[in-house]
Amino acid sequence: MFIAFIQSILLVNSCLIQNCEFCSPSFPDTCLNCNPGYTRDLELGCSPSQFHESSFYHIENCLELKDSSCTQCLEGYSLAFGRCEPICSSSDCLCFYPDTCLHIKRSLCDSSKCDTCDIINENCKVCKGGFGLNELKECVECIDPNCANCNTNFNICEKCTAGTILEGLNCTYCGTMNCGSCSESTKKCIYCAKGMNFDSQGYCCDSSCLTCSYNQQTCSSCKKNAFLDKICYDCIENCQFCINNSSCYECEEGYEQNYKGDCVEKGCKVKNCLNCLNQDKICLKCIEDYVLDHLNHCCFHDCKTCNADSPNCVTCYDGMYLDEIKCKSCSDHCLTCSNFGNCLSCANGYEIVSGYCNKIKTKESPFKLPAIFSVVSIFVIGSISVFVWLILDKKKIRIPVERVVVKPKHEHPRENNRGIEPIDAFEMVGLYNIQQINDSYSHAKNSKRNSARQNHPRNSQEKINPNSKTPIYVSVPQSEPVEFIPSNPPLNPTINNTDNLQQKSELPDISKPIYEHESISICNFESIVPVVHLDEVKSYNGIEVCFTCQERLDGNDEVRALPCGHPYHGKCIYNMMIYQNRKQCLSCLRSYF
Ligand SMILES: *[C@@H]1O[C@H](CO)[C@@H](O)[C@H](O)[C@H]1NC(C)=O
Ligand SMILES: *[C@@H]1O[C@H](CO)[C@@H](O)[C@H](O)[C@H]1NC(C)=O
Ligand SMILES: *[C@@H]1O[C@H](CO)[C@@H](O)[C@H](O)[C@H]1NC(C)=O
Q1: What is the pLDDT of residues 394-409, one digit of tens each?
Q2: Would 27 be classed as within a structural domain?
Q3: Which residues form the signal peptide (predicted)?
Q4: Which label site among 17, 355, 454, 507 has the fewest CB atoms less than 10 Å from its CB?
Q5: pLDDT (tens digit, 9 = 90+) per residue, 137-154?
Q6: How many domains are contained in the chain?
Q7: Distance 170 CA to ligand 1 centre (A)
Q8: Is the same domain home to 413 and 542?
């Protein structure tokens, strides 16, 4: 129905009759209502009003007009807001505006309700299941909710739903509600609907019930170990009678309530045990919050073992230590410990340093393994993807090796024949935020749009939709050409210290020229090679080792950094620069003469 409605609207909108306000949804060349001042005309559709010369305003479907306002409407129309609106019931009326409705001849073949349609008369011949024809030849729901088929007359049921049976004109349950299937001959229920079972009286009840009654969806009594709350719910374990599922009124025989209200087996020697074997020291199931260990005792969580008479941990799993009665986790990467700060063994790659596990450092490389690893893997992944790309796209083996400068819009983009598509100005929305787009909109609207049209006629027509409510015009700044560097610049797989360090943004730019005062001497050593502070991981610019002595910068000795940003022990760099007169950074090889 909704789709039919939308289609009608589309038809109305596609009305091509001049001066017509609404066309017929079924006959688009028939006007139903003309614009003010026009009247319907068989040939022209809507023609200027002829009668009432004096009145400039003609009111459609008006019978009597007085002083340019309607006093009485034609039959079938009623006066509303000075106009004659069709009187219609909601079933044969189509509303366009909240208060404007039109009589229409609707198709009665709603495909959701109608099975076979008479296309010529637009009537439904046979309705779908559960629907039947009414006096207007529309398909409406069968009057009996238990009717499965009433398709020629919505009042007369031909077939009832499963579990009901036709008695006279009505579908009635065969002996019990919730029946799944009735016997035609005995008119008795053969089996119950899904999730339902016969009770002792032959009624179909919820499967949790002991009994229910004919016309009730709920249970009337429950089995043992369950309580009634519309349907039946199980009591807690080993409970015989209860009224809710959080406590027990009477435990089953051989069980008694413990301090928490659980029904635990009488005489069981294991504490916190729910069920045990022959009242022995072997527990089968613990009460909530306790776990069974391999000795069949009920312990606190995280214990490896405990005793039968107490949940307190006796032993713990690896990676945990016994803290009085519970097991607690050791510190990170520690496999065994005697307490949190006293690790006894560490995981692979870790060593014990004052009770904790620290990563084992390799001295020869001051750079972190992951950095090298990631550079290598980026290179490998890059090569693989280029390789795959080449295989998949053999026709386009054009690897852009030169730098391509995309000119702003004033140059004709079709002249660019390098095999690389230029960036279209209108695709660069991502470079601008919405505010900028809005700001540039008013300017762009007049100037840029025109110039874009002239220079780039085909594309601009495609990209600019002048009818859209929020047009987006984006212009590439004219002053600065956008540099577009082809992706996948060749990666250098050989890692050298300088390359690696230059990736760190904190480093001074070593490409800057060397200034005079950077020639280091005994006079300016203190100021040009200043004392620096290490960060939390005892590194400076990510470097943890002095380049001269290869010892760690442990924070105990003064650390100084050269203007290139590479750190040294204060005494090492002083020795090298002043006493040995080797005025070059050992890391980046920059000279300080
Ligand atoms: C069918 O049901 C209606 C109400 O649903 C009742 O008024 C009517 O008497 C019933 N007819 C028969 C034949 O049972
Ligand atoms: C369950 O029933 C007991 C009485 O038997 C009552 O004290 C308790 O509050 C009930 N719990 C809930 C959640 O209704
Ligand atoms: C407890 O009983 C209530 C009804 O009283 C039910 O809605 C709920 O699902 C039951 N909870 C459990 C865990 O059985």
Answers
A1: 544 343 333 333 333 3
A2: yes
A3: 1-17
A4: 454
A5: 788 899 999 999 998 889
A6: 4
A7: 6
A8: yes
